[in-house]
């Protein structure tokens, strides 16, 4: 909040009216978001879950098909309590269950019709993974061949430009619509946007009202988002590069553990997974002890994913501005201190 207040004069003239039911600063945020993504228009939503539901139901009405092809590890399936079915009357099919985005062949061979192909970029629960740009282009083309529209769950789309080697308009331009988050990657207080053709966004605004998203004032969230676009968005490629340094140092530090994984080996974004052969509680307690005793925060909470191998836990690592201060040697030393707090396996 202190950073937000300090940066506010550069992000928006607060001598102007802030917002009332989505005008003022919220309208400016929508304009800038659409411009950054190369889309005709964008609508602000209080949550990404709401933005996704509205986008998918609008496309279902337009295509005449309420089936969404998506990934079983996607946010839609894992983190939204089946809202697409319970609230919006949609159903899903899965071109693949592999821990990656679907290929063009899998989309082309899917055994039933679908109206929308939804792609989460990056696929968070598979390890923040991305295809290469040619693969993504082919997958989108396969959906078009099946007369489907393409929607991007781009909560973290902001950080994909390094991996793809493309700008945001070229990436977003592959799809018919895209959702982006203002707090994931950008460090905002919350909020999201749905961007796409002006006619779709106009329709989405009507559904936003019906879903309870027409909030009287949201200027603190919108202001934080503008600050994030100004300050964090330009730094994301730097974070991605540093994440690769951190991941490499962790691989070296854990070489004597036996089985472990840093996934992906070279991170696609500034976030990645670490897997170790210990119980989640022991790893979380060691993370806290390291912070207390060494004043070093290397990892946060660990968990044992459902369906994963027994006795193995995973945590997610995010490299942002504080991580830029760490050298590879700093990471190796912190990881060694962390391992000393664990009971040797076996």
From TrEMBL:
Gene3D superfamilies on file: Aspartate Aminotransferase, domain 1, Type I PLP-dependent aspartate aminotransferase-like (Major domain)
Signal peptide: none
Domain Aromatic amino acid beta-eliminating lyase/threonine aldolase: 25-252
Keyword Nucleotide-binding carried by entry: no
Lineage, top ranks: Bacteria, Bacillati, Actinomycetota, Actinomycetes, Kitasatosporales
Listed GO biological process terms: glycine biosynthetic process; L-threonine catabolic process
One GO cellular component term noted in the UniProt record for this chain: cytosol
GO molecular function, a single term: L-allo-threonine aldolase activity
Family label: Belongs to the threonine aldolase family.
Stated name of the protein: Threonine aldolase
Alphabetized InterPro entries for the sequence: ArAA_b-elim_lyase/Thr_aldolase, PyrdxlP-dep_Trfase, PyrdxlP-dep_Trfase_major, PyrdxlP-dep_Trfase_small
Cofactor field: pyridoxal 5'-phosphate
Keywords: Pyridoxal phosphate
